[in-house]
């Protein structure tokens, strides 16, 4: 059951990359409008699910989650105006993995040989998948994707302590509305929306963002920081495979081998996490 939820959440994250790339690459919508519509759609979808006025009151302490969510969604959209999908995914999820793994080590999580091997194999798979086919990006857009990765890492770390994933996700989205609106005001003259872009932003916000983030927060209660960071390295692989299916991109042997490496690294990390849990359980009973 848990593996099914993980697969669903990662698939939704990959879908967000596809929706955003489609909308921005074909200039169906500007990144600020896409981000704002995505956030508002998420708020409305969660409000319908919660159906309680009492539960819909935003909590003051959730402003950090709202700030991280806005930073991720807005920087992600701006970066994909120029970055190719491969390099963008590498920067985003490479940043997420490295920052969450370092935070985990800082907080005392053990890095066993198997864990170190899993992290290395998964990250090398990402490098193999994307680096040879990319060109040097604009520093500004590269920085924006790294900012998106740091924001998503922060958003994930905040969610690891929540007992009510849906309510906390709703509050994060509520806080993200005014923050995103303020950051978007500087680009008011450059806003444009076409119907296809509007539809992609609504689908991204109402389904593959808000609902997927609730699922992700629920999963985070059962994952340690290192496992959570490495699981997300599967998203660039899924996005690339989705590009082959839906965007007629080519599936190469290098792509297939790199995907196997990433999934093998994730498998090693999960195995190491279970081994540590068993050892801790035995020690506790002794």
From TrEMBL:
The chain crosses the membrane at residues 35-53, 65-83, 89-106, 113-133, 139-158, 170-192, 198-216, 228-247, 253-272. It comes from the Bacteria. The keyword Transmembrane helix applies. GO terms for cellular component: membrane. Keywords: Membrane, Transmembrane, Transmembrane helix. It is a multi-pass membrane protein. Residues 6-130, 141-270 form the EamA domain. The keyword Transmembrane applies. It is found in: Membrane. InterPro entries: AA-Vitamin_Transporters, EamA_dom, EmrE-like. Its main location: membrane. PANTHER family: AMINO-ACID METABOLITE EFFLUX PUMP-RELATED, INNER MEMBRANE TRANSPORTER. This is EamA domain-containing protein. It comes from Acinetobacter brisouii CIP 110357.
